[in-house]
Design goal:
This protein has about 450 residues and is an all-alpha fold. It folds into three domains: about 150 residues, no CATH class; about 210 residues, no CATH class; about 70 residues, no CATH class. The chain has 17 helices and no strands. About 30% of the residues are buried.
Length: about 450
């Protein structure tokens, strides 16, 4: 098939698809308007009537704008013959596409994936709060790691006191004296510190159980069914209550108290006066109490260092749950909803593919027309007009060859017909030579009619 025939067929197909093209544009614009309405409605606040009409007006404006934009491009871009004009319209199409995405596509994505995006936001927030609760519980229970050391130190002081009382293991003289009194005092301080840590463990356990209850309720809201807005509101209530539990856990930690108590062991050490009955016993008591003092200082440094390590653990950050609308959630978690974004953008930008198709078809039609002969360019209307002109010319030549005797009769006939008929024949007489110059068919027929 020649390129000329291909050009004619492409032109006929393009003309036959005009109605279909308009229908496709109108359908896509309507679909975009519907999803835009759903997206806008989730952003507006106020009475139901105001929200309804505002969303309708905005979505209608979007639909009309999209339909008009792509209609103009379908009409003008394929007709551009020079490269500069075509590039300008392509740039306009690119700018318009960006504007369409900004005013419509993200709202379409919000309508398609808005609820899922809000649920994603709730799930991410739940995960953050779960980590915060675990961290707060770990910090609060950090002082429990000191409990074995404190218990060993208390037991050691108590055992030394018993040994000194029973057998005089330290001074060589049994009985209750200054050394026993000092060892008993240090053992009592250790037991008191141990009791504080154990009491805090019960409080931490209670708070942690309360936090787990709030987390369970939040998980149920995330994975539940029904409209997302009421679930998001109840989730916010649970998040506020959980934040209070986490703050209480942070304040329950006894690590600061342990560190202060450990420092007081050496700073507040008060050794009793040696009460030995002899100078030799009193001297031995002073030596033992100095040794005990050194041991207490070493124990104090060890406990203080361990408490500082606990306090150096990262604190739980202050967290506040921020509710998001479906449109905001789609923007924030856009990477997790690529298919929804692709569908929303495709609805708005699919007419661009039609514009490209029409541009390619029109370019092929123009290439085919450039290779067409003059006889291939003539239309049916031009053919019929050429035949009429040919018949008129042939009639004039036959009339001219009929003889001079017929001319007066023809003149009388024209005078009888009136000035209008004469003007018409005069006009056709002037029109015929012009047709001879432009109509190939009339030229060939004239050659056959000439004697």
């Amino acid at each position: 098939m020649s390129e000329a025939a291909t050009a004619r067929r492409l032109k006929d197909h393009a003309a036959s698809l005009t109605t279909m093209t308009r229908f496709v544009l109108a359908t896509l614009a309507l679909a975009s308007g519907v999803y835009t309405y759903l997206g806008v409605r989730s952003l507006l606040d106020g009475s139901a009537t105001i929200v309804f009409f505002a969303a309708i007006i905005y979505s209608a404006a979007v639909s009309v704008g999209i339909y008009g934009f792509w209609t103009y491009l379908l009409r003008f871009l394929p007709e551009m013959r020079d490269g500069a004009s075509r590039l300008v319209l392509v740039a306009v199409m690119a700018v318009g596409s960006v504007m369409i995405v900004a005013m419509s596509s993200w709202l379409n994505a919000a309508a398609l994936a808005g609820s899922a995006a809000v649920e994603q936001h709730l799930a991410e927030t739940l995960e953050d709060y779960t980590g915060d609760l675990d961290q707060a519980n770990t910090n609060a229970l950090g002082a429990l790691s000191l409990l074995p050391d404190i218990q060993r130190a208390g037991e050691r002081f108590a055992r030394l006191a018993d040994d000194e009382r029973d057998s005089g293991a330290l001074t060589g003289t049994s009985g209750s004296g200054s050394v026993v009194q000092l060892l008993t005092q240090m053992a009592a301080q250790m037991r008191e510190l141990e009791a504080n840590i154990l009491a805090s463990r019960e409080t931490v356990a209670t708070l942690f159980d309360e936090g787990q209850t709030h987390l369970a309720a939040m998980r149920g809201l995330v994975s539940g069914s029904g409209p997302i807005a009421p679930r998001s509101d109840r989730f916010a209530e649970q998040a506020v209550a959980l934040a209070g539990v986490i703050a209480a856990l942070e304040q329950t930690s006894v690590a600061p108290s342990v560190m202060r108590a450990a420092e007081d062991l050496s700073v507040g050490f008060i050794a009793p006066v040696a009460d030995g009955s002899t100078a030799d016993l009193a001297g031995r008591q002073d030596v033992v109490m100095a040794t005990i003092r050194s041991s207490v200082e070493a124990q104090s440094k060890a406990l203080s260092k361990a408490a500082q390590q606990i306090l150096a653990q990262p604190r739980v950050p202050d967290r506040r749950y921020v509710p998001l609308s479906s449109a905001e959630a789609v923007l924030l978690y856009g990477g997790d909803f690529v298919p929804s974004w692709a569908g929303a953008i495709s609805i708005d930008l699919l007419p661009g593919v039609l514009v490209a198709i029409m541009a390619v078809v029109q370019a092929a039609v123009r290439r085919g027309e450039e290779q067409m002969a003059d006889t291939d360019r003539i239309t049916a209307a031009d053919l019929l007009r050429s035949l009429e002109i040919h018949d008129a010319l042939l009639a004039r030549r036959v009339a001219a060859a009929g003889g001079a005797s017929e001319e007066p009769d023809a003149a009388e006939t024209r005078e009888a017909d009136g000035p209008e008929q004469a003007d018409d024949e005069h006009h056709r007489g002037h029109e015929a030579p012009a047709a001879e110059n432009v109509t190939p068919l009339s030229l060939s027929e004239r050659k056959r009619s000439d004697p």
